[in-house]
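Pipeline run #58 for the internal structure catalog. This entry was flagged by the ingest filter as a single-chain record with no existing model, so it goes straight to prediction. Upstream metadata was stripped on purpose; only the residue string is passed forward. Reviewer on rotation: M.T. Logging verbosity set to normal.
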Amino acid sequence: MTSVLPYHPRCGRRCRTDVRVTVAIMRLHCMLLTVVLGLASVSAQEALPRAVEGVVKDPSGSVISGAHVTLNAPGLHVEQRTDARGNFRFNLISAPGIELTVSADGFAPVARRLDDLSSPLEVVLRIRAFDQQIVVTPQRSAVPLGDTNATIVRFTDQTLSTSPALTLDDKLRDVPGFSLLRRTGSRAANPTSQGVSLRGAGGSGASRVLVLADGVPLNDPFGGWIYWDRVPSQSIEAVEIMEGGGSHLYGSGAMSGLVNLLVRHREGNSFALDLNGGTDASPNASLFAAHEFGSWTASLAVEAFRTDGYFAVLTQDRGAVDAPVTLRYATGTARAEHHVLNSGVFFAALSLFNEGRANGTTLQNNSTRLGQLTTGFDDNLGPGRLVLRADGEVQSYSQTFSAIATNRTSETLTSWQRVPAQQAGGGAQWSGLLGSSHSVSLGAEARHVRGVSNEITFRPKGSSFGSSGGEQSTFGGYAQDSIRWRMLVVSLGARIDRWSQSPLRTGANGDGVELSPHAGVVLHLARGFSWSASGYRSFRVPTLNEFYRDFRVGNVLTLANGSLQPEHLNGAESGIGFTRGNTAARANFFWAEVTDPVANTTLTTTPALITRQRQNLGSLRSRGLELSVESRLPRHFSVRSAYQFADATVLTSPGNAALIGLLIPQVPRHQATLTAAYSAARWVVRAQARTAGQQFDDDQNRLPLGSMLTFDLFASHRITRWAELYVAGENLFDRRYMVGRTPTTTWGPPLIARAGVRIQFAAR
């Protein structure tokens, strides 16, 4: 069929064409118009704000609370944590091309492009193999655990929050070989005895382990001990313990290892509160809150605790002078972050801490007040990350000392000390990938400490005043390269430190240069096995406290020594690891020899007074075996066991040959822990046992402390999407164990029980 078209203007006559051509052209125009309108509709829909919401679960279907959820798109970066029911929700998201990233401790991260926002999302995270866990301590940057030649134990937020222990140091005793100077935990111990050591390296008041929080040392600037209650518990995201020498990256203080506290930073709009109370009238409150507004993030972490304490001396030995060991403290950190450029973050944080203790008699007590300001800047630089830190701290520590009659019926004040101290320091580090096989860390740090011990001594003929102190400076630079070639990872690193110390008034200056090398290797074998080995040299410069301050505990007087020299540790270790599915096991042999260790050496002993002095002993050796097995069992169960054998003895002693071959004080040969946990949607139950063999309280091995065994339990039940109730008990069977002989025997805590409520949510 044909059709006549209207008059054509060009040819001046009527044109005829096939009607089918006309219909095809009309259809083509309609299709083009539909496409244009559709694109316009899609653009309009993309421009409309949408909510992005969903739930995060594990492979069993249980929800994962506290998972990190991030949305990224051109011009958009927002993040938050899932709530108690595993839910997340971002309101009014309008950017196109959104990518969702979800991660959580113990699980492999998931990244997903969001093309359809019409329905709630369900994100399932697979359990990450143990050797794929990411740790930051062994290289000062993120690295898979399986590629490290160091022995690393990581405590996640969930592990810490479900521990039966209240104090951080007691939570970390799940690692055999982790110990303070004495068995007493920080809830009852004098601060000067809260230095920590690992692997039987020997204890003194000063810590032979460096403790960091957000990259800044927590070790006391004057004495080197640790205030374990200084960081609010709700602000701690994870803790990593690295055993073995760490001076090649961290300098003096990390002689036998490192404890790294990873604190919460960007949390979106979030809130966490823990309120609990227990035996001995022990209320505790810990809070963390964060709020984002534009390019700024502000956070606040505070904690307060007090307890009426317990008697450290048994009833049959107790006298009129004895009183409970008590503790009260308040601590807080306010932090502000500003996000600059594309990936840079500048922050400033102010921390305040106030602690007071009664140390077991009517006249012995101490208190500490300190303030710290920390600033930093983090940003991507080339193929790596640049980290800058600077901090300053002022503090005042005071303590009273007394002489106690042998029948403990009377007590006489002998001295009062006040120790003001200041420190300032900072550093810069770049870490990243060079090429496809080199992971590099480069950095430099400097620190200056000044402290004075002002003392009033009380005598029958009158009182006298004395003052002694000094200042100490360190500067160091380090480099480490981790090289991966197929199944082999080789790490080479070294650090050079320059240190100096001098008394404030008279006396000769001391200084020196220390080289701390490190070499390690990891070989990934077949069927989930791996072999690792490392060798290192590390050191520790004595603290101003050891150089200049005398102290007294009970009837034990310890004198300072201005002629002390640095301690050095030469060590090596080798181990076999196995990882398959949800099970990981490791056997590790270690050997360490410490030359010139600072030890409290007994000078004289009388019924009324034991006099000791800090001296460089000669050398000691600690060698032994570590075993650990961890398994995530079906139906929400998990089990972890660990054991350490440490043969720690005096190797040489030029001043006292009788000490050769004796055991190092405060180091048991055998230590073991066992933990079993059940975790489901609403219930968490965790039981643990800890045991240690006999150890000695003195260098001459005349004051033995018997073996110990304790059982602890934690149980919680989630009552709403944002709240849970819990109960916890330490030393459930009320088994008292010896912690000191000065020479009166003091004992560890009795049964300690508490109950509380936790509230945690992410604001919408």
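catalog note: Residues 1-19, 39-48 have pLDDT under 50 and may be disordered.
catalog note: The domain at 50-124 is CATH 2.60.40.1120 (Immunoglobulin-like).
status: ready for reviewer M.T.
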